[in-house]
Structures are given as structure tokens and as C-alpha cells.
Amino acid sequence: MAVLSYTTFIVLSLLLLVTFSNVAEVYGSANLRPSDCKPKCSYRCSATSHKKPCMFFCQKCCATCLCVPPGTYGNKQTCPCYNSWKTKEGAPKCP
Fold it and tell me: Is Signal tagged as a keyword (predicted)?
């Protein structure tokens, strides 16, 4: 009986581990290489009318955080480093 409970616990733990690792992959954990920053930032900045400053700061943030939030706006909670980097005035540094 104890062996069955232990085996069930191990199997459920492994399933949870696999599930959470896939969630981290989908939501942009810090897993980019610096060479991935330019294409990710190009998409991130594609909807703005201020492309040059957006690309500059996005690439700077990506190089430091190795993460760019999905989409063209918002979703910064998926990249904690990217989300928490602020200017001297307290405004968000990363687009």
C-alpha cells in the first residue's frame, strides 16, 4: 500500500513538473539568446510609431533580461526582469 502511494506521488510530481516547464516555455521565461533579440524586438515594436527608440530600448532590455514579452504591447508580467526595469523617474524602461 505504501509503495503504491509513493509511486502515485512520484508520477503526479513528474506530471506537474512537465506541465509547469511547458508553461514557462510558452510565457517567455529568460531563455533567449542575444541573437534572438532583434527579431523579437522587431515584432514587439512593429505597432508603434516610434520605432527607433522602441527598438533601442527593447534590444537593451532583451540583452540584459534575455526575454521579450509576447505581442506588440503589454504582457510584461511574463518577463519579470523586463517588467521591473525602470528609468530614474520611475517609468518603465522597456517597451
Answer: yes
pLDDT in tens, the chain (95 residues): 566 677 777 777 766 665 554 444 444 445 788 899 999 999 999 999 999 999 999 999 999 999 999 999 999 999 998 889 898 999 999 99
**Reported pTM:** 0.66
CA 67-69-73 angle, to 5 degrees, is: 150
The closest of 19, 60, 23 to 38, measured between CA atoms, is: 60
Q: How many CB atoms lie within 10 A of CB 22?
A: 10
User: What's the CA gap between 85 and 91, in Å, rounded?
Assistant: 9
